[in-house]
Amino acid sequence: MSKTVLIVDDSASLRQVVSLSLKGAGYDVIEAADGRDALGKLGGQKVHLIISDVNMPNMDGITFVREVKKNPSYRFTPVIMLTTEATEEKKRLGQEAGARAWVVKPFQPQQMLAAVSKLVM
After folding, report:
1. Which among 19, 38, 56, 115 has most CB atoms closer than 10 A?
2. Whole-prediction pTM value?
3. Cα separations (Å) of 32 from 14, 37, 120?
4. Which residues contact 61 (CB under 8 A, 6 or more apart)?
5. Rounded CA separation 81/101 (Å)
6. In the chain, what are the domains?
7. CB of 46 closer than 8 Å to CB of 5
8. For 63-78, how does the pLDDT look when each residue is reduced to its tens digit (9 = 90+)?
9. Are the beta carbons of 55 and 77 closer than 8 angstroms?
């Protein structure tokens, strides 16, 4: 059975790059443009991993992760933050919200896939 990954990023081109890498590795992918869009697309379906940007319109990544973790269905779903943010403060906020890994853009697809395969349940 293939695993499903939700990608949340306001950059369509970045979502495409991540999506192609994941699909190439055999994952199913759901894409969302920001946190609010992502919450709407979750809707109780099984998601094995979430990859989220931090800086997005409507709902930023850290707020999104906090919201996701309130939902019992997704409380244990691992989250990777994929972002240009590299400050310790942002990383700490991300970890407190529930993010398990932090990948800084620009990233190597292999590096991201390694993080994904480690965290996918």
Report:
1. 38
2. 0.94
3. 11, 6, 19
4. 8, 35, 52, 53, 54, 55, 81, 83, 94
5. 6
6. 4-119 (3.40.50.2300)
7. no
8. 999 999 999 999 999 9
9. no
121, pLDDT greater than 70: no
Amino acid code (one letter) for 26: G
Q: Write the secondary structure of the chain as one string of H (helix), E (strand) and C (coil).
A: CCCEEEEECCCHHHHHHHHHHHHHCCCEEEEECCHHHHHHHHCCCCCCEEEECCCCCCCCHHHHHHHHHHCHHHCCCCEEEEECCCCHHHHHHHHHHCCCEEEECCCCHHHHHHHHHHHCC
Q: Which two tokens stand for residue 29?
A: 């992918």
What angle is formed at CA 14 by the lines to CA 70 and CA 56, rounded to 5 degrees?
45
Q: What amino acid is encoded at 119 in this protein?
A: L
* Burial class of residue 82 in the structure, from the number of CB atoms within 10 Å of its CB (0-12 exposed, 13-18 middle, 19+ buried): buried
Separation between Cα atoms, residue 121 and residue 1, nearest integer Å: 12
Q: Provide the residue type at 74 as one letter.
A: Y
